[in-house]
Design a protein that fits this description.
Strand content of chain A: over 45%
Number of helices of chain B: 0
Structural class of chain B: mainly beta
Distance between the termini of chain A: 38 Å
Shape of chain B: globular
Number of helices of chain A: 0
Helix content of chain A: under 10%
Number of strands of chain A: 11
Oligomer: heterodimer
Chain lengths: ~110, ~120
Amino acid sequence: DQQVKQNSPSLSVQEGRISILNCDYTNSMFDYFLWYKKYPAEGPTFLISISSIKDKNEDGRFTVFLNKSAKHLSLHIVPSQPGDSAVYFCAGVEAGTYKYIFGTGTRLKVLA
Amino acid sequence: DTGVSQDPRHKITKRGQNVTFRCDPISEHNRLYWYRQTLGQGPEFLTYFQNEAQLEKSRLLSDRFSAERPKGSFSTLEIQRTEQGDSAMYLCASSDGTSVGNEQFFGPGTRLTVL
């Protein structure tokens, strides 16, 4: 029962271009979504979040879009930098709980 | 404060042995979480504490797994009679519950290898 799906295991993008990472979910009870970045041998690091009552949240180079009707969210990174190369996880949090459900991750490689 | 710390970073054990991991959250964070991550997967929720109370527990947490947070500060995760399927990265995270988006701060993890 995969409630959060990241169907692209990997993505390569040229430096300076836009990176778009996608995430689909099945649980209608999620009220918050978060994106995390993970480097090897480190724990995940929080990037950006969005409430289910919004459709967009922006923080510097990072923007998250939420399409509730499609149960889909995406993370846009503009412009992409080599230091953005990492594994990106999306996660959903069900209303009234503190249980975070993570996707399987997408490995982003930004080519210099 | 340098963030969430976990000890040990690596643990190799033989099947059937018991192991215990420790997590020290960011001070003042009243919420603490344990996750397990295997290769190619995202972190899987195991359990959650608010202060010393264990409020949620995943079905993944079998009877061989127990977690405690006795004084509402550090936490321990014990696995009894380890099995090869327990080999994974065990991640701890903490939060203060006031951050927008319920942001969690993760530790570096403890990598367990069961031979």
